[in-house]
Amino acid sequence: MVQEISLADLTRGSSTAQPADLTGTVATATNGAASVLAPAGAALTPENTLEQQLANLPEADRARIQQMADSIDLTKNGIESSYAKDVQRSTSTFADDILAKVRSKDTGQAGELLQNLLTTVDSAELGPIRNIPILGGLINSADKLRRRYQKVSSQIDEIVGKLEAQQTRLVSDIALYDTMYQQNAEQYKQLKMYVLAGKSALHDFRANQLPKLEAEAAASSDPMQAQVLTDFKSKLDRFAKRLDDLDRVSVVALQTAPQIKIIQNADQTIVDKIDTTISTTIPVWKSQMVIALGLENQRKALDLQRQADDVTNRMLQQNARILHQGAVDAEKANQRGVIDIDTIEKVNNELISTLRETVQIQKEGKANREAAEVKMRQIETDLKNALIANAQQMH
């Protein structure tokens, strides 16, 4: 039952402190997972009045909230700013602890290690992503392949060690998020209990006590009593604002719950991925490496055999060509006469031509001599006649 107060109590200010066991009462009242939540399907809208919200709670929770509401002294100095301050302080302290733990960790290291692992394997042109189920293009030199495997293998072993350490850290984080989720749920419940208790106390005070104070101020001959009442109403408004702030914080706490689970599930996914990589991907890669080495040795043996076969075939073909040409040339030489008929024929033709030309030259020479002799006789006759004529003319 709320104690009756007067305007005189407002001017003095109550020295009654908020009960020390109020937080304990709230903690006891929040053992149920959904004791301060509306039933499924009941939307938290402005239409849900305080009476409706309280009516949706179990009887035990309503009794505890009423006990808390009866313990609230709205005349206490500073209650509009100190109400439920312990809950807010514990929320801040818990958040600081979580931030300190998260700040000391490299939250992106696991993803970077996985990416480095894939990059290291893939850079060797032997990674399971590229070579399973088809190995792809093999490296020409088996020695080069082995050296590359040894280099990449040591890098992978180092990364796997870091992944295992990161996996252990993520498992620890998952447990931390469980604690964080439970703590957040507990804070949400406490805030809702404080809000409902404060709203209930404020509602009862405005319904029962405030009209009496207004009547007392109206009947008083002291005009300052009206100012006292006005100041107290302002205090009640600030208390209502305080409850609204706490209510908003409780909504944020409610929103934080799925956020924590999302982060926790993401960490669990990374843990599972690391486990799969270490237990499956790496062994598969190593087995494929053994297959790659075997296939490379096989390819080299086949290349050597193919080269030997090619050399043998080329040698046989070349020898066959040489043998054929040699036999043909030998037989041609054997069947050839000492003097070719063409040569004899040519010589005979040259000889006949020589004889014919010689006879013709002789005939022409004889004819030329006979003609010359005739001409010489004519020259002599002409010269003789000329001399005679010349002599006659001189007499």
TrEMBL record:
Pfam families: TelA
InterPro entries named among the record's database cross-references: Toxic_anion-R_TelA (IPR008863)
Species classification: Bacteria, Bacillati, Actinomycetota, Actinomycetes, Bifidobacteriales
Family according to the record: Belongs to the TelA family.
Protein name: TelA-like protein associated with cryptic tellurite resistance
